[in-house]
Design goal:
3 helices; elongated
Length: about 100
């Protein structure tokens, strides 16, 4: 256990940051899965509504990944890799009609 005031404060701050980082990572995973599910839905029923839904979710996911990178929750290369994998899946979905 911490012996001085500053060490106790650092423990509190690191715990707070850990929870914030955990929530960002969880939201990124959730939005990624949701985007991929909507892509599957578009594959089964390719119409304009589903295409718009894919694009909206893709933008939300990219935005959240960029925010996580900006706040140093994710490394910039990790964020770029996540965005690349999602974008590759979406492009394959749109090209394979």
């Amino acid at each position: 256990m911490a012996n001085n005031k500053s060490a106790k404060k650092r423990i509190q701050i690191s715990e707070r940051n850990r929870l914030i980082n955990k929530s960002y990572k969880s939201r990124v995973r959730t939005l990624t899965k949701k985007t991929l599910e909507i892509c599957q839905k578009y594959k089964k029923d390719p119409n304009d509504d589903n295409k718009n839904l894919v694009n909206i979710n893709l933008n939300k996911t990219f935005s959240l990944i960029d925010k996580a990178v900006k706040k140093n929750v994710l490394h910039k290369n990790n964020g770029a890799n996540k965005k690349s994998k999602i974008n590759k899946f979406v492009k394959n979905t749109f090209s394979a009609k």
